[in-house]
Structure formats: structure tokens, C-alpha cells
Design a protein that fits this description.
This is Acyl-CoA dehydrogenase. Belongs to the acyl-CoA dehydrogenase family. GO terms for molecular function: acyl-CoA dehydrogenase activity; flavin adenine dinucleotide binding. Residues 258-402 form the Acyl-CoA dehydrogenase/oxidase C-terminal domain. Keywords: FAD, Flavoprotein, Oxidoreductase. This protein is of the alpha+beta class and 408 residues long. The chain folds into three domains: 10-122, Butyryl-Coa Dehydrogenase, subunit A, domain 1 (Orthogonal Bundle); 126-250, Butyryl-CoA Dehydrogenase, subunit A, domain 2 (Beta Barrel); 258-403, Butyryl-CoA Dehydrogenase, subunit A, domain 3 (Up-down Bundle). It has twelve helices and eleven strands. The protein has helices at 10-37, 42-51, 56-63, 70-81, 83-102, 105-116, 234-250, 258-291, 303-331, 340-367, 374-381, 391-403; strands at residues 117-118, 121-122, 125-128, 144-148, 153-164, 171-177, 187-192, 199-204, 215-226, 293-294, 297-298. Strands 4-5-9-8 form a four-stranded antiparallel beta sheet, with no helix packed on it. Strands 3-6-7 form a three-stranded mixed beta sheet. A hairpin with a 2-residue loop joins strand 1 and strand 2 (121-122). The longest helix has 34 residues, at 258-291. It is globular, with a radius of gyration of 22 Å. The relative contact order is 0.11. The protein binds flavin-adenine dinucleotide (FAD). The site of flavin-adenine dinucleotide (FAD) has 22 residues, from strand 3, strand 5 and helix 12.
Length: 408
């Protein structure tokens, strides 16, 4: 285990500065344009691929950083640049985590490279769990995967929604019901390879924020995938289902399902995205408050403004510390006995919403216009309290973990 320190090591500082440079020079200047266009910023993803930020190697290096801080540090810097563009760059990584968490070594080696493509022909991937009637309530999922033993194929039917990169992805990771009797314990994750017949994009959503990130429905109409596309393999699934049936008979000890394993691994990463957006808005507000003069002095001379900035910075630092703690616990295999991963996501996402709203207030009329970036940052920040589990769901997870009670 690494010795305790609050400082990034030299290598981490170097990576952080490199990412910050990319965020400042490439992402931030393009943010307003892609927000207005509401399209995936392919040229920026390609640029990120060329310098090595959009790649499996980079993601894996950060993911396996021994201190656990690689991913949160990377997310904070990229989302400091712009949340919509950054989500277009890291959305593939969220799908890749689904494969890393549940896939065999062969599946990881086969599919993750195809999620990224190469620098001349970049690709993206999508993780599809949510459905129109199954958002927070994952157990209501209807998308069904049925095994065709004669052909060793799975046949998948259903409609997924709000999928980041849904329909434009080269590789889709789809969560589906394999045993309806078991609720969320009867789910499994599948790879849907490129150009598989039957998978199509439904509606593309026009959104409040993160508009450079593509969000759409994914329709699965008799999609057939080889048996080898079941993440983790059939034997492991059969064993897991047998255990779940046994436990259901005995009275319901909890079993982690495939989708929950993915969410567990990615929550502190989402918290770090929120920290990035909050920090970006705070920095704009601090600069503005120092230079904007009213009543013959900079507005920061007023306690009413300065104290807001003090509170903003304090919350951001607290959010980062919660995030780093959760990431450190995850890499060191510490049990999340107080749902520390959910705590980080809850606090950081609520902080981002609050801090970006305070930034608008500090910029006054300018803050409310698209001449300044804080109104975009505020629209973007609203997503953090919704995806990867809403704030209410984080509170449920935390309070259930603390109390051991089935809080509703
Ligand atoms: C831009 C965007 C990108 C997304 N990307 C993906 C993706 O890539 N893949 C994917 O699978 N999904 C994705 N999602 C879906 C996202 O994870 C869901 O929207 C989220 O889980 C909430 O589900 P819901 O929208 O159905 O809300 P609902 O579950 O209907 O919740 C509505 C409200 O009720 C509250 N609520 C629900 N149940 C309870 C309860 N028990 N107690 C208290 N309050 C409760 C919620 O907190 C919320 O405030 C994305 C969504 C968006 C908007």
C-alpha cells in the first residue's frame, strides 16, 4: 500500500499539467461552438487520440494508478475544460469499465480496442442500461436476452434510452434480463459488436446541458450476438444465477448484479467530473470578482461576494477530498462500509450545481449570457445529480448502508 500523502507524485503532476494544457488549449476554446452545434466533436476526439488522451493505454494507466488518483485527476482536468466535450472523450471509458469489471481477459483484449478505433479512424462506445421505465429502478428492466443453445447465440430485444454515444458507437455494452424471476440479480451484460443487424438508434435527445455529448435511444430488434459476447462467460453467469436462486429461496441476501458493479466502479469518477466543472466556474467567478468594479471598487471587496467565493472553494476542496478518498479506497480494496463512493458523487454533484449557480450570481448580467461560460457550466452541472444514480438514489444507498435498514 502506498504511504499516506496529500501530494500528487511527480509523474502524476506531469500528467495533470499535460491534461490541463490540452483542456485549456484545445477543449475550452471549442466549448461554446460544440455546445451550440449539439453534435459529437469528432475533430476534438481525434485530436485527443493523436496526443494519446483518447486511448485504452492512457485510460488503463490512470485506472491502475497505484494511488487510485489517476482517474479522478484526469476527469477533473478534462471536465474543467468543458463537460460536454470531455464526456464525448471519456464516454467510451465508461463503457470500457463495464467490460473491465465483468469481462474475461479475452473479451477485454478483443473489444476494448474496437471501442476506441485508431487515430485515423476514431470510434466511440456506449453503455446501455437505462430504459424508459427503468432508470433509478434498474430491476424494472425489460430488455430481454434469450439463449439460443443450438446456435450458441443470444437474442436480445428491447429499448434502451439516454445512452451516451447510443447508436453512434462502434461497440455497445447492453445490460439485459436473462432470468426475469430474479429481478436485478437476473441481469447480464453483453457486447453488441460493430454493425450487428437489429441494433439501431432511436430518438437523439436535445438537452439542457452537456450538449456536445450525444445521448440517444438504442433499439434492439432481434439482435443476435455470439455466446462469446456474454461478459464473463456462460459458466460464470450460470454459477451466479444458481447462487442468486439459492439465496432468493433462503430469503434474499444481496447479490451484486452486472450493472451495479459498473456503477460502483464509476461513481468517484463522476464525482471528479463534477469537481472539474465546479472548479472551472469558481475560477471564472474569482477572476471576474477581482476585476469588475461597482461603487468605485472591485466587487470582491464586498464580504457578500468574497464570502461566497470562500464557500465555493471550501466545498470544491471538500468534494475533491471525498472523491480522492473513495478512489483510494477502491484501488486498495477497502470495503465501502459507509458508501463512501456514493458520498463522493452526492456531495460533488450537488456542489457543482450550487457553485455554478453562485458563479452566475457573481457575474451578474454577464453571467446570465452566453458571452461568458458560467451559464453553460451551470447547465452542464445539472447532469451530475442525475446520471450514474440521482442524488436521491445516492442518499438511499448511503442511508441503507449506514443503517442496514431497507429505507424507502
Ligand atoms: C445526459 C444523460 C446521459 C446518460 N447516459 C447514460 C448512459 O450512458 N447509459 C445509461 O444506461 N443511462 C444513462 N443515462 C440515464 C441516467 O442514468 C438516468 O436518467 C438516471 O439513472 C435516472 O433515471 P430516470 O431518468 O429514469 O429518473 P427516475 O428514476 O424516473 O427518477 C425521477 C426522480 O425521482 C426520484 N426517485 C426515483 N426513485 C426514488 C426513490 N426510491 N427515492 C427517492 N427519489 C426517487 C429520482 O431521484 C429523480 O429525482 C443518462 C441520462 C442522461 C440525462
Amino acid at each position: 500500500m502506498a504511504e499516506f500523502t496529500m501530494e500528487l507524485n511527480d509523474e502524476q503532476k506531469e500528467v495533470r499539467d499535460w491534461l490541463h494544457g490540452f483542456a485549456a488549449d484545445v477543449i475550452r476554446p471549442a466549448a461554446a461552438e460544440w455546445d451550440e452545434r449539439e453534435e459529437t466533436p469528432w475533430p476534438i476526439i481525434q485530436e485527443a487520440a493523436k496526443v494519446g488522451i483518447y486511448s485504452l493505454d492512457f485510460y488503463a494507466q490512470q485506472y491502475f494508478d497505484a494511488t487510485g488518483l489517476g482517474i479522478p485527476m484526469a476527469m477533473e482536468e478534462l471536465f474543467w475544460g468543458d463537460a460536454g466535450i470531455a464526456l464525448s472523450i471519456v464516454g467510451t471509458g465508461l463503457a470500457a469499465v463495464g467490460v473491465l469489471a465483468n469481462g474475461t481477459e479475452e473479451q477485454i483484449g478483443t473489444w476494448i480496442p474496437q471501442m476506441y478505433g485508431d487515430t485515423n479512424d476514431v470510434k466511440v462506445a456506449a453503455f446501455c442500461s437505462s430504459e424508459p421505465d427503468a432508470g433509478s429502478d434498474v430491476a424494472s428492466m425489460r430488455t430481454r436476452a434469450v439463449y439460443d443453445e443450438a446456435k450458441d447465440e443470444w437474442v436480445i430485444n428491447g429499448t434502451k434510452t439516454w445512452a451516451t454515444n447510443g447508436g453512434i458507437a462502434n461497440v455497445h455494452v447492453v445490460v439485459a434480463v436473462v432470468d426475469p424471476e430474479l429481478g436485478s440479480k437476473g441481469h447480464a451484460s453483453f457486447i453488441v459488436p460493430p454493425n450487428t443487424p437489429g441494433l439501431g438508434q432511436g430518438q437523439k435527445f436535445k438537452k439542457h446541458g452537456i450538449r456536445a455529448s450525444h445521448t440517444a435511444e438504442v433499439i434492439l430488434d432481434n439482435v443476435r450476438v455470439p455466446g462469446s459476447c456474454l461478459l464473463g462467460g456462460k459458466e460464470k453467469l450460470d454459477q451466479r444465477l444458481a447462487r442468486a436462486r439459492e439465496k432468493a429461496k433462503k430469503g434474499g441476501e444481496r447479490v451484486k448484479n452486472a450493472a451495479m458493479a459498473t456503477f460502483e466502479a464509476s461513481r468517484p469518477a463522476v464525482a471528479a467530473m463534477a469537481v472539474g466543472t465546479a472548479r472551472a466556474a469558481y475560477e471564472v467567478a474569482l477572476d471576474y470578482a477581482r476585476t469588475r468594479e461597482q461603487f468605485g471598487r472591485p466587487i470582491i471587496d464586498n464580504q457578500g461576494v468574497a464570502f461566497q467565493l470562500a464557500d465555493m472553494r471550501t466545498s470544491i476542496d471538500a468534494a475533491r477530498l471525498l472523491t480522492w478518498r473513495a478512489s483510494w479506497m477502491a484501488i486498495n480494496g477497502k470495503p465501502f462500509t459507509a458508501a463512501e463512493g456514493s458520498m463522493s458523487k452526492l456531495f460533488a454533484s450537488e456542489t457543482a450545481k450550487k457553485v455554478t449557480a453562485q458563479a452566475i450570481q457573481i457575474l451578474g448580467g454577464n453571467g446570465y449570457t452566453r458571452e461568458y461560460p458560467v451559464e453553460r457550466m451551470h447547465r452542464d452541472a445539472a447532469i451530475y445529480t442525475i446520471f450514474e444514480g440521482t442524488s436521491e438514489i445516492q442518499r438511499l444507498v448511503i442511508s441503507r448502508t449506514l443503517s442496514g435498514m431497507p429505507i424507502r
